[in-house]
Amino acid sequence: MKPIISVIGGGTCTNEEAAMAVSVGRLLAEQDAILVCGGLGGVMEAVAKGASEAGGTTVGILPGDDPGAANRYIGIPLATRMGEMRNALIVQVAHALIAIGGGAGTLSELALAQRIGKPVVGLHDAFTSAVDIPRVGTPAEAVTWALERARAKVV
């Protein structure tokens, strides 16, 4: 079974966060992981771009009812009609998560991941003073960290 990694982050992001997200997506695809994200813009679009361009599988768990609302790099758009409650699905389906940047929605995903015991690592996340999670400095470190934990659960 392929590892499923959810990448969480803001619907808007800095250029630095976007570059990191593209790298994370590419590295996940190169490791044959399935990328799950919220399917919209910002970090979600950047990570999906990296994975898609590297031939990876991209799943977008969308808040609304229109699969066409997904960014162009999402191969499998899942329209949930759940609004922000879809964040629980993004967390629940993952074997591990990577947080990049983020706002209130990302914070809710981080909190839920911690609450249910999903491994999550921060890469330039916006919550260094609010949430105690492991943090790394590069996309490669984030992907390695997440895949090590995911593969321990997949076997």
Helices and strands in order:
Layout: E1 4-9, H1 15-30, E2 34-37, H2 43-53, E3 57-62, E4 76-79, H3 87-92, E5 96-101, H4 104-116, E6 120-125, E7 135-136, H5 139-154
Helix pairs in contact: 1-2, 1-5
What does this structure look like?
The structure is a single chain. The chain is of the alpha/beta class. Helices cover 40% and strands 22% of the residues. The protein is built from five helices and seven strands; from the N terminus they run E-H-E-H-E-E-H-E-H-E-E-H. The protein has helices at residues 15-30, 43-53, 87-92, 104-116, 139-154; strands at 4-9, 34-37, 57-62, 76-79, 96-101, 120-125, 135-136. The protein has a seven-stranded parallel β-sheet, with helices on both faces. Helix 4 (104-116) links the parallel strand 5 and strand 6 (120-125). Helix 1 (15-30) packs across helix 5 (139-154). It is globular and about 35 Å long. The model has no long low-confidence stretch (mean pLDDT 96).
Considering the chains and any ligands shown, give keywords for the structure.
155 residues, 5 helices
Short description:
With 155 residues, the protein is an alpha/beta fold. The chain is built from five helices and seven strands; from the N terminus they run E-H-E-H-E-E-H-E-H-E-E-H.
